[in-house]
Amino acid sequence: MISFVKGRLVEKTPSVAIVDCNGLGYEMRISAHTYEALTEESVMLLTHYAISVDVRSGASTHQLFGFLTKAERDMFRLLITVSGVSSTIAMTIQSTLAMDQLRSAFLHGDAGMFKTVKGIGPKLAQRIVAELAEKGIIGEVHGDIAAPSGNMARQEALAALCSLGFDKIRVDKTLNAVVKDSSENLDVEEMIKRSLKAL
Fold it and tell me: Which pLDDT belongs to residue 166?
């Protein structure tokens, strides 16, 4: 998949950056903090490719998200592992809260910090803290965000299963069980196979 995009910044808004890479324009969703930091014409953005599927219509949406640092991308990928936190909500969180604030919220299990983000109510804020604690992530974050082992493979498996029409929350819970029950690091293909048997 696309790991990064390097080229000339053609256009930027507080939520979107368009980068010309050898004549091909990549449109990426970015946070407000990234928008403020993009001051040079030549840029390199780390990327995350996301597929979301409308359960009712079956229509899929493909989006590319851009980040200035690995820590920001890891934080984004950490957030979208939480049930109810879509890629759009994760980006809103990163636009509202600085990395230091997010690190502090994770380390201290501070649900109140997330309630300051538009669109996040008390239940979702608490779920973010609770699910990450359950996955053993809160309390293990020091300096840069350390995504759990196999997190990238898990996200690719999640995207693939959702593209098949399965509900994201159900897939997320199934993947959690698959990873938890395995004594080895599973690759994407094996995660998908085991999840399909359980779904």
Answer: 81
What CA–CA distances, in Å, run from 76 to 10, 79, 118, 142?
Answer: 24, 5, 17, 16
Q: What is the pLDDT of residue 149?
A: 43
Quick one: tokens of 1?
Answer: 């998949």
Containing 170, the helix (H) or strand (E) segment is helix 168-181
Cα(28)–Cα(76) distance, integer angstroms:
14
Dump pLDDT digits (tens) for 128-176.
988 876 665 544 444 444 444 456 677 778 878 877 778 888 888 888 8
Q: Are 31 and 17 in contact (CB under 8 A)?
A: no
**Residue that is last in its domain, among 68, 88, 105:** 68
Phi, then psi, of 37 in degrees rounded to 5 = -85, -15
Residue ranges for the chain with pLDDT beneath 70: 133-152
Domain presence at residue 160: yes
**Has residue 84 been placed in a domain?**
no
pTM (predicted TM-score): 0.67
Query: Both tokens of residue 154?
Result: 């898990």
Residue 157 sits in a domain whose CATH number is 1.10.8
The answer to whether residue 64 is domain-embedded is yes
Q: Which domain holds residue 194?
A: 151-198
Amino acid in position 106: F
| Amino acid occupying residue 8 | R
Q: How far apart are CA 132 and CA 126, in angstroms?
A: 10
